Fold each of these.
Amino acid sequence: MPVSHGDGSVNVVMLGPPGAGKGTQAERLARRRQLPKISTGDILRDAVTAGTELGRIAKATMDAGNLLSDDVMIGIVGERLNRPDATGGFVLDGFPRTVGQATALDHMVDGRGPLVVLDIVVPEEVLVRRLATRRICGQCGVNASVEWTGACQKCGGELIARIDDGVEIVRERLKIYRRQTEPLVDYYSVRPTFRSIDGNQPPDIVTRQVDDALLDACRRSAAL
Ligand code: AP5
C-alpha cells in the first residue's frame, strides 16, 4: 500500500549523479508503492525512438551528455504531473537537474504535500565503472541485469551500450552534474524531508535504505 502524507500523496524525487542508481531504485520504489515512475531520461529516449520533434531536439544534446533547456523539461514534467495517475503521488527520476527546475517543481507540487528528496551518493570512480559496463536493451530500453547474456529477458531485444555511456561523455555528464545539479543538495538539504543514501552498496541494501528513508521522512513531515 502507498505510504502517505497527511494529504494522501507521496511525492518522491530521486537525486544523484549519472549511474548512482536513481532509475533502478525509482523503478523498485514505484512498483512497491504503486506510484508512477516518471523518468525524464526515459521520456526523452522514447521520443528519440519515436522520431518526434522533441526526440529530434533531444538526441544530439543527450548524445553529447548536455542538458536540455529548463523550459523544455519543465513543460514536459508539468504536463506529466497533471495526468490523473500522478495526482496521488509520483517518483521522479532525473528531474529536477537545475535550481531553475527545482523552483518550478516546487510550484507544480504546491498544495500536493511535501517532496521527499532521496539523494543517492556514490564515489565518482564507481560511477564511471558502472556506466562503462552498463548494457541496455536496444528495443525496450531497460537496463540489462548482470545475469543477462545475449538478449533482453523482457522482450528479447539486443543488448547495447548507451551512446552517452562512452568514457569521455560520462566525464562530461559528471562535470555537468557537479556544476548544475549538485547545487540541488544545498537547495533541498535544509528541508526535513531530505535524506542521503549510500548508493555504493548492493542494490537490495540500497532498496531497504530507500524504504527506511522514505518512511522516516514521511513520519517527520506528518509530525510537523
Ligand atoms: P538520464 O537517463 O536521467 O541519465 P542520468 O541521470 O545520467 O542517469 P543514468 O540513467 O545514467 O543513471 P541512474 O542514476 O538512473 O542509474 P541506473 O539505475 O540506470 O538522462 C539522460 C540525458 O537526458 C541527460 O544527460 C540529459 O541530456 C537528458 N535529461 C534528462 N533529464 C533532464 C533534465 N531534467 N534536464 C535536462 N536534461 C535532461 O544504474 C546505472 C547502472 O548501474 C546500471 O547498469 C545498473 O544496473 C547499475 N546499478 C544500479 N544500482 C547499482 C548498485 N547499487 N550497485 C551496482 N550497480 C548498480
Amino acid sequence: MSVNKEIKKVTTNTLLKMKAAGEKITMLTAYDFSFAKIIDGAGIDVILVGDSASNVMAGHETTLPITLDQMIYHASSVIRGVHRCLVVVDLPFGSYQSNSDIALASAVRIMKETGGHSIKLEGGEEVLDSIKKIVSAGIPVMGHLGLTPQSIYRFGTYTVRAKEEDEANKLRRDAKLLEEAGCFAIVLEKIPAALAKEVSESISIPTIGIGAGGNCDGQVLVMHDMLGINTEFKPRFLRQYLNIHEQATKAVQQYISDVKAKDFPNENEQY
Ligand code: KIV
C-alpha cells in the first residue's frame, strides 16, 4: 500500500490539484481526538466530522437529533489530533435550513469554536443562498447531493437516489449550481455509478463518493463501518477492513476472565 505523506498540509486547493492530476482523494469520518490522530497519522487527505456522529457516537437512529454544540465538541476534539489533513465539519440539521444568516452564523461558530478548516451541508438549489453567503465570508464549503440523510423523513428510505430521470436531472443541475456557488467539493451519496461518473466529469471541483462507484474523484466511508466497530450496518457499498467489534469483545472477555481468576493484576502489574 502506498500512502502519499509528502504533502505537508492538505488544503482545498490540494484537492483541486489532485482532481486535475487524476489522484484519488481519501476521506474518512472521525469524531474524537484519538481516532483522528490515527487516521491523520495514516496519511488520509480529509477527515469529515460527520453528523453521522448522531448514529455511531450517540446511538440515534437518524442524524437529525445532533446539535450544533455537540458537533462543535466532536470537531474541536478531532482538530486536536490532526496535523496534516483537511478537516470538514458537518452543519447539523436545523442549523442552516431556515435562512442564510442563520447558516452563516452556524458556520462561523464551527470555524471559531473548533478550529476546523471547512464545513459541509446537504442539498442543492434549496440551500444555494446559504452556500453563497458562507463562501463569501471566506469559509470553504463542501456540498452533499444524492442521499442526504438529514432529509430521511422526506425520502422515507435509505435506498439509492436519482435512479429516475427527474431526480437525476435535478442532481446534474444542483452539482453545477454548487460548483458555481463556490463549493470546493461535493459528496455524492448512494447514486448510480454511471450518474456519479457523468457528474464528476462535468464539473471542475472534486466529487467524493459513498456508494457512488469508482469514478468519483475520491471516496469516503464512515470510520465505524469500515473498521467494523459497528457491525450491524452492511450495505453493498461498504468494504470492512477490520472487525474491531469482534476483537474488542474478545479482549474484554479475556479481561473479565483474568480478573475473576485472580490472574490480573500479577506481581509485575502492581506497586
Ligand atoms: O455524516 C457523515 O458521515 C456523512 C458521510 C456519510 C458522507 O455525511
